Amino acid sequence: LVPRDIENATRSTTPTIGAKEMVAPPDRDLALNTLTNPFTYCGGLEPVKIAVSNYGSMGITSFVINWSVNNVAQTPYTWTGTLAPAATREITVGNFNFPANTSHNLRFTVSTVNNSSDQRNYNDTLNVTGLNSSMHGTYTINQNAPASATNYQSFTSLATDLQAKGVCAPVVVNVVVGSGPYVERFLLNDIRGTSSTNTIKIN
Asked: pTM score > 0.85 for this model?
């Protein structure tokens, strides 16, 4: 008998066939799903929002979430209201001043649910790593100059950052005259944040 299922839940003496043990949900189970904001930002004060779900059998009327940025604890968030079983809600746990061009690691954990402990722990923690501001402003491509926050040594490295960070304002990239040739393939998929205003121009 395999003692635990794919989600680390304890198997019963007559286990469910398959990877997941189908058991009755506990009374209290608040799940932290995903970060919803910030996602595309230029830097500065941003509301920090996450999506939460009630996977328990009872309605949730209150909960407390602890959260931190780069291991620095922030003010715990206390929620009151009504969150029915199977319902999902976006909440704003607080605000944080995110400096541009700085990587941030965020951590959220459930402290209490209905003034008691959460009865299922594997979905009580949400970790977000490597959150960084989106691109905006003027950049250069110059393989003869050091790589920096505003200079790329190749089109490939530029494409990597555009795909990873997206844009939050218009972006202009100037290829420094005489710095080439650049023998590479430059391919972009959908870039987060682009619009008729937030364009990417390469000169």
From this structure: no
